[in-house]
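Retry 2 of 3 after timeout on previous attempt. Resubmitting structure tokens to design endpoint.
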């Protein structure tokens, strides 16, 4: 099973990216969690290019989403909203059939940042994602963490992450 994980942060030591790396470590045999690395290079969405002129990187992103059995999204909140780079990536998916119905897990590493989570859910629901309730987890990391290995080795965090991932896999 192939799961594509998308972090809404471009920061080098992002807590959102790190929690996705921890999930990749915790994935059971036969499940590969791949972290999407192209968010920062995606061109700005332009409906005029949402056709046979679609930029290569956007087409590649669509195809990576299309072949994934499920998605995991973990995003920070910027100014009470979803980071522009993540919204831009999602906009590239609106006009394709790569995304609709895709089982989706949401990870929230900052429970106080509820505006972005609410917006993300609204956006994904509008895009006909299948947000899996059992796969939505809160992992209160904040911006301080000791890396993916430490998160995966922490019993309490690893249990929550495994439960969420299992919920996603069961729904797939
Ligand atoms: C420009 C900017 C705006 C932010 N706005 C908010 C905000 O509105 N609410 C909030 O809870 N945190 C806000 N934060 C804090 C980030 O969401 C927080 O540091 C998050 O952990 C960053 O995620 P990352 O470690 O994956 O990069 C903001 C951070 C930045 C850089």
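Retry 2 succeeded. Sequence:
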């Amino acid at each position: 099973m192939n799961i594509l994980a998308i972090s809404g942060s471009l920061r080098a030591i992002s807590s959102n990216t790190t929690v996705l790396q921890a999930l990749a470590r915790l994935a059971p045999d036969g499940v590969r969690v791949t972290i999407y690395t192209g968010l920062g290079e995606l061109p700005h969405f332009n409906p005029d290019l949402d056709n046979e002129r679609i930029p290569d990187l956007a087409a590649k992103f669509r195809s990576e989403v299309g072949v994934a059995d499920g998605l995991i999204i973990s995003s920070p909140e910027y100014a009470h909203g979803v980071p522009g780079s993540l919204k831009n990536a999602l906009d590239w998916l609106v006009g394709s059939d790569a995304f609709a119905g895709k089982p989706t897990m949401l990870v929230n590493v900052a429970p106080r940042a509820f505006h972005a989570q609410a917006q993300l859910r609204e956006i994904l629901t509008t895009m006909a994602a299948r947000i899996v309730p059992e796969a939505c987890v809160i992992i209160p990391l904040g911006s301080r963490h000791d890396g993916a290995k430490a998160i995966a080795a922490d019993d309490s965090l690893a249990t929550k992450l495994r439960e969420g991932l299992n919920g996603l896999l069961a729904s797939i």
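Attempt log closed. Residues 9, 11, 14-16, 76-80, 110, 112-113, 143 surround flavin mononucleotide (CB under 6 Å).
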